[in-house]
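User: quick one, sequence for these tokens?
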């Protein structure tokens, strides 16, 4: 994990969920929509948070210190 603390932990797990979701797409199964399909706005929010988490971790990987 490149970032420490609560935000880094949340970002890590959201990125893991995003990666699993992409992997399951091979089998035509969408984990996020299966869990939250009844709430389209929440599905969109989760996708946005996964993307932001990936950016947070990616930029943190290049941070000095």
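Assistant:
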């Amino acid at each position: 994990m490149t970032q420490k603390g609560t935000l880094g932990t949340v970002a890590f797990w959201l990125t893991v969920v995003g990666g699993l979701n992409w992997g399951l797409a091979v089998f035509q199964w969408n984990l996020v929509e299966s869990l939250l399909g009844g709430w389209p706005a929440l599905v969109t929010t989760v996708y946005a948070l996964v993307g932001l988490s990936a950016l947070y971790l990616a930029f943190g990987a290049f941070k000095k210190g």
